[in-house]
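Batch manifest line 254
LIGAND: sodium ion
JOB: complex structure
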Amino acid sequence: LSIEARLRQALARQELSLHYQPQFAADGERATGVEALLRWQPPGEGMIEPARFITIAEETGMIVPIGAWVLGEACRQLRRWLDAGLPPLRVAVNLSARQLRNAELVLTVREVLAETGIPPQLLELEITESAVMDKPEEAIQVLQALKQMGVTLAIDDFGTGYSSLAYLKLFPIDHLKIDRSFVRDIERDPNDAAIAVSTIALAHSLGLRVVAEGVETAAQLQMLRRHGCDEVQGFFLSRPLPAEAATQFLLRRQ
Ligand code: G
Ligand code: G
Ligand code: MN
Ligand code: NA
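JOB STATUS: finished
ARTIFACT:
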């Protein structure tokens, strides 16, 4: 079977699932949301990480139906959490460039929101800097349509692509996620520290909230907090968890 056919089968046979990585207010205490991360578990095989199939899913276009499933599943999970009495938290879903260019994205999001009845602002869509900068004039229209529905929009992997905050300000973005490559050496490398700190300051001056990803140590967390980073995500706080473990985690942290 081609990988495209295997992916099609994976979707039909429910071999895909989502793991959820909690995000926290910068104090590291209160969970503010989760990022949904795709996993593929073919029967009798080990878990296949997205790094090994996302590119192929994008190239073949399979990311469009897979991405629609991810949007639906993430919102259904949030519905279950809200119904279980958890305080409102955001669920963040990664979108690929291919999805952003697909005419049906806006419709898919509208349908998922209607079906699950979750407050639109609790759905966060993460779009990489390179995906929006690929065809900025097309991206801006899609993002505006999504924003009109009330969803939260985030730029993912910020700092790894080519864009300026001034340009990004033209997009209806709410959050900026500092790429983990700048967080990794934030204590040792003055350049990385300067990039993180000035990104936080500039983002704030433009009215954007900042999420730092890849926080792996207490010292990184402390430094980010000291410089006013709003939210944090990373292995130090929690790894991505299967739905059931994420539920237990969130119930303990509420
Ligand atoms: O979960 P992990 O760190 O292995 O994710 C690797 C990459 O796959 C990340 O860049 C992440 O954004 C991407 N990814 C994870 N889940 C999804 C998804 O549902 N859709 C898309 N488009 N990308 C995803
Ligand atoms: O590109 P994106 O930011 O969507 O990538 C998310 C990926 O980052 C997930 O696959 C997740 O497993 C991974 N990740 C999350 N937290 C950490 C961390 O603290 N350190 C590292 N190295 N990877 C992380
Ligand atoms: Mn992401
Ligand atoms: Na990222």
